[in-house]
Amino acid sequence: MSRWLPPAALAVLLLALCALSLALGARAVPLGQVLDALGGAAPDAGVGNVIWSVRIPRTAVAVLAGAALGVAGALMQALTRNPLADPGLLGVSAGAAFGIVVAVGVLGVSAVHGYVWFAFAGGLAASVVVYTLGRLGRSGLTPVKLALAGVAVTALLSSLTSAVVLTSPETLNRYRFWSAGSLADQSGDGVVRLLPFVVVGALLALACGPALNSLALGEDVAASLGRRLGLVRLQGVLAITLLTGAAVAAIGPVVFLGLVVPHLARMLAQRAGIGPDQRWLLPMSALLAPCVLLAADVLGRVLVRPAEIQAGVLMAFVGGPFFVMMVRRRRLAEL
Predict the structure, then answer these.
(1) Could you give the number of structural domains in the chain?
(2) Which of 195, 228, 252, 278 is the S-S candidate for 212 at Cβ 3.0 to 4.6 Å?
(3) What is the CATH number of the domain that holds 179?
(4) CA 304, CA 299: separation in Å to the nearest integer?
(5) What does the alpha-carbon distance between residue 99 and residue 82 come to, in Å, rounded to a whole number?
């Protein structure tokens, strides 16, 4: 099998799911009318408005956020050499949640485009604290210390978030909607705000690829090959923070996406003869994750039409049993 076949197939699948996302929803729109609307010649002004104002921003955010979480998950697992690592391990999701409840419950911010920045700031601050704690001690920054620091900071921020939420019904209502992992009510402005963080984070992650391949051979071997491990980890943490913080701030914490997708990408890579090469796994995760997220979003829109099930709820419902089955049936692919 050619190395280019899996990425090409994933790209085609992503385009097909984007078309379905534009066509399906509370009101189904034939693909012909979707193409007409994209060309500015929609026969029905209402259809054109739905496509451009609602479904295109929603689909674009799903692609960007899905790619961000997929790359962040693959990078996190490679950086910590832990097959169960999740982008939220650095405390980014907990920091974003705390930022939102502070913005809504303490500062009175009510608009989504207002508190999304607090979510990103909270995620960034949490990752800085985790990285600083992980560097303490004689041994410096290690994957184990980084993971333990992430767990501790996540537990602390989750407790603080619960304390704020339980004292404010309005904050609880907004937090519940965000925490469900929703792609609803997206806008073109949201796409513009999300894009720079995802692009910069993805470039940083892709630049880590060769160093991650060396790190997989062991820290001593990587150091002997001239890799500056501290710099690699710092670059990786920054990339994970940008990608996860932006995605979580925009759509909420979509569980299992960054955990399961890298394993699926490694399975495809093994079948294609690519092996555990991060230079291929990271782009494949960037293509596969939005496919999974878009499929969950489209399914959630059509199952209970005209209402909808949030994509994050479906991901939790399907992702948990799928991951357990994958772990039970086969040994996790080596990192």
Answers:
(1) 1
(2) 278
(3) 1.10.3470.10
(4) 9
(5) 28
